[in-house]
Every structure is written in C-alpha cells, then in structure tokens.
Write a structure and sequence with these properties.
Elements (H helix, E strand, L loop, with lengths): L1 E6 L2 E3 L5 E9 L4 E9 L6 E7 L4 E3 L7 E7 L4 E7 L8 E9 L4 E3 L3 E5 L2
Parallel strand pairs: 2-11
Antiparallel strand pairs: 1-3, 3-8, 4-5, 4-9, 5-6, 7-8, 9-10, 9-11
Length: 118
C-alpha cells in the first residue's frame, strides 16, 4: 500500500504561482510513476502531468509551458512536486496526486484545492 498526502493548494490571483507537493509513504519501492490530476467543478477528472522514476514527463496541452512536474526519489520517501506558474481562472480545481505501482495498482491522495481568482 502507498499513502499520499498533498499540500500547497490555496487561493491565488490570475498570473500568480503555486507549488503543490505530494509525499508518498508506505511501499514506495513499488512506485513506477507519479502524477497530478485535477477535477474542476462540473467536469471530469483530467490528467495534468506525470513523471516516471526515470524522469520522463508528460503534460496536458493546457498546462504546457506553465506547469513543471518534478520528483524527489529518496530512499525513505518519495515526493512529487507541481510548480504552477501563470495561473488562470480555468486552472481552478481540486488537484489530486496519483502513484502508479509497478504491478499496476493506482493510489490516490485526498486532493488539495487550487482556486485562481481576483
């Protein structure tokens, strides 16, 4: 089992920045990839960005050039970050962290709210 705890959400004005963090614990040796997803009010959950243990990244077109995902693979913890710049009102959503285990299971965090508003 893998436990995920997100932090860093909040209220920010358009054009501002936030950095989300997701700390993994438990069977972190089994984690193959980690990523961020979001669900805006009235919409389905969508992929924001993912990163593998080898550092390969993938981004949604809507965030390319504005968001950066990174990962800290320490022996006792595994943390993924999402640096969000030039935030727009349409980035407002509940952001979830996901860890994909090498054996196929997916684990989700509880989510952290990001609100972009003036």
């Amino acid at each position: 089992q893998v436990q995920l705890v997100e932090s860093g959400g909040g209220l920010v004005q358009p054009g501002g920045s936030l950095r989300l963090s997701c700390a993994a614990s438990g069977s972190i040796f089994s984690i193959y990839a980690m990523g961020w997803y979001r669900r805006a009010p009235g919409k389905l959950r969508e992929l924001v960005a993912t990163i593998t243990g080898g550092g390969s990244t993938n981004y949604a077109d809507s965030v390319k050039g504005r968001f950066t995902i990174s990962r800290d693979n320490a022996k006792t913890k595994n943390t993924v970050y999402l640096q969000m710049n030039s935030l727009k009102p349409e980035d407002t959503a509940l952001y979830y962290c996901k860890a994909q285990a090498s054996y196929g299971a997916n684990f989700w965090g509880q989510g952290t709210q990001v609100t972009v508003s003036s």
